[in-house]
């Protein structure tokens, strides 16, 4: 029988445990190790994978879909399409991941002996409709596949074939929209069906039902939603899309998505939906979620901090495959457009299409994981054009762009594209720079979430600021969609080169 929640202890560190756009977390435990997968949408490679020993400190160990045969996202597909919510499970010695490519082949299954990869070629599951697929095995080895809605079928996960008709098994709380993110667990005497409902915005919440068999009938928890922050002024909002897991001491925890809105009303979140950790107790054989807070009370087991990710990437790589796993491109990473060997010690980008305004932009970036932070890149536009970008999607990005003549600050906000300032470019490679500063004090109800400063480092004049922009236009509340900001470099015309890239959280 599950144990009760651990006793409170001093605060050890902050939630989110996975900052930046890491939505739809799915977690599994194998012995003393934990593994977690998230959605990745239009970015390539897809489905970032993380490892932890304490549920608090996570290290990215790879990406499950890192080959074109696994991940086909059409270059003209829309932003926030691509790879939706995964489920990661361990069964009979193998890691199983089921996920939806909404811009391609729908639901697919990959397996691995080692979650760091390689992951198998995909097994497509056209019999499985919709999004948010879950896999759960019962005692006799039957695999149950549940999807948003909430419907279920028996599945042969090796072939992707359904072995029974699709059955509606629960619709969530009457009146609540979007019953999704289902996960099915056998815990004690019951099968529990955990779902998100209310939509992934401010109305998001987590509900649960239980049954004596994996196929129901399911009895809703009398106090659903078991977690929501809707209609509160809690600093963590949009809470939903959770997965349950037991800690090293047998206590229960939930990893879920949430956002951290900043600024005045309505509050803008710019880092996307992040992964948070919250304790779970059990009362009358129902899960009771503890307080979700930006500060985590100590867990009742030793923490195992992980080495920090170095701030600088030098791109001194013999092959693109040596890029660290947190680097992401848009929809593909064709060696025709990305190279670390053409100019040894440099990343070389060959433009395709219309630069960042196009869905097939040649871009390499990493998630913004801190509300206040900065990025510097040593950039050589050669005879091309490109630069450093703070990107939300093709229609919402701020850039410091350089070509043979000029360096300029450019803002793309919906249908508008504006060059805010331009200066003659000093000769030779140039450090392009952005500094992002979270709003600390509200001037008024309309204060934005942060300020994005764009500029370059002049050999004689130091940091030359070209523009300071309100960050609200690079927020999900303005742009829409399911991702969060990604900071990185791009080619808009011809060929450009980058010697190194440095990401620094702001101190304090
Ligand atoms: C995901 C759904 C959701 O498939 O948003 O918040 C969708 N939850 O479960 C995209 O992340």
Describe it.
This protein folds into two domains: 287 residues, Tachylectin-2, Chain A, CATH 2.115.10; 194 residues, Jelly Rolls. Helix content is 1%, strand content 47%. It has an eight-stranded antiparallel beta sheet, with no helix packed on it. The mean pLDDT is 95. The structure holds (Z)-L-Arabinonhydroximo-1,4-lactone. (Z)-L-Arabinonhydroximo-1,4-lactone binds next to strand 16 and strand 21.
Q: How would you state the average pLDDT, rounded?
A: 95
- Report the total helices: 1
Instruction: Give, in spatial order, the strands making up the sheet with the most strands.
Output: 4-27-30-39-32-33-34-35
Helix content: under 10%
The major β-sheet equals: 8 strands, antiparallel
The top-level CATH class of the largest domain is Mainly Beta
The CA-CA distance between the termini, in Å, is 44 Å
The CATH architecture of the largest domain can be named as: 5 Propeller
Provide the gyration radius in Å: 23 Å
Counted beta strands? 40
The CATH topology of the largest domain comes to Tachylectin-2, Chain A
Kindly report the name of the CATH homologous superfamily of the largest domain: Glycosyl hydrolase domain, family 43
Which structural class matches the secondary elements? mainly beta
**Low-confidence parts lasting 5 or more residues at pLDDT below 50?**
none
Q: Quick one: overall form? A: globular
Could you say which small molecules are bound to this protein? (Z)-L-Arabinonhydroximo-1,4-lactone
> How many domains comprise the coordinates?
2
**Percentage of β-strand residues:** over 45%
């Amino acid at each position: 029988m599950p144990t009760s929640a651990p006793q409170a202890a001093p605060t050890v560190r902050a939630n989110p445990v996975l900052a930046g756009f890491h939505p739809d977390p799915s977690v599994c435990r194998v012995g003393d190790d934990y593994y977690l997968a998230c959605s990745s949408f239009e970015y390539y490679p897809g489905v970032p994978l993380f490892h932890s020993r304490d549920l608090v400190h996570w290290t990215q160990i790879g990406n499950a879909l890192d080959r074109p045969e696994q991940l086909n996202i059409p270059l003209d597909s829309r932003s926030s399409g691509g790879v939706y919510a995964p489920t990661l499970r361990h069964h009979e010695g193998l890691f199983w991941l089921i996920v939806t490519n909404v811009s391609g082949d729908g639901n697919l299954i990959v397996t691995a002996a080692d979650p760091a990869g390689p992951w198998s070629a995909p097994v497509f599951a056209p019999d499985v409709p919709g999004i948010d697929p879950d896999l759960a095995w019962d005692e006799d080895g039957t695999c149950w596949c549940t999807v948003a809605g909430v419907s279920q079928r028996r599945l042969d996960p090796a072939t992707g074939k359904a072995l029974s008709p699709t059955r509606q098994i629960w619709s969530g709380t009457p009146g609540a929209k979007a019953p999704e993110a289902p996960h099915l667990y056998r815990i004690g005497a019951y099968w529990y069906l955990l779902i998100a409902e209310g939509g992934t915005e401010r109305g998001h919440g987590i509900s649960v039902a239980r049954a004596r068999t994996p196929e129901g009938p399911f009895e809703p928890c009398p106090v659903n939603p078991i977690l929501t922050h809707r209609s509160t002024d809690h600093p963590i909002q949009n809470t939903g899309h959770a997965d349950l897991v037991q800690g090293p001491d047998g206590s229960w925890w939930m990893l879920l998505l949430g956002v951290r809105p900043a600024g005045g009303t309505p509050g803008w979140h710019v880092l996307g939906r992040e992964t948070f950790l919250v304790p779970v107790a059990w009362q009358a054989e129902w899960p009771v979620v503890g307080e979700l807070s930006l500060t985590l009370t100590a867990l009742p087991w030793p923490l195992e901090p992980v080495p920090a990710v170095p701030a600088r990437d030098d791109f001194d790589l013999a092959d693109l495959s040596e890029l660290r796993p947190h680097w992401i491109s848009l929809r593909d990473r064709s060696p025709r457009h990305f190279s670390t060997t053409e100019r040894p010690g440099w990343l070389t980008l060959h433009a395709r299409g219309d630069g960042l305004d196009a869905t097939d932009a040649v871009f390499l970036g990493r998630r913004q994981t801190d509300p206040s932070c900065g990025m510097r890149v040593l950039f050589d536009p050669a005879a091309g054009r490109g630069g450093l970008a703070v990107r939300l999607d093709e229609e919402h990005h701020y850039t410091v762009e350089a070509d043979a003549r000029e360096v300029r600050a450019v803002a793309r906000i919906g249908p508008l594209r504006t060059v805010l300032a331009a200066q003659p470019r000093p000769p030779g490679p140039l450090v392009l720079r952005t500094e992002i500063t979270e709003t600390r004090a509200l001037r008024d109800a309309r204060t934005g979430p942060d300020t994005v400063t764009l500029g370059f480092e002049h050999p004689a004049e130091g940091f030359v600021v070209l523009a300071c922009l309100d960050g609200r236009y690079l927020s999900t509340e303005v742009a829409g969609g399911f991702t969060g900001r990604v900071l990185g470099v791009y080619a808009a015309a011809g060929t450009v080169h980058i010697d190194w890239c440095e990401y620094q959280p702001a101190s304090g």
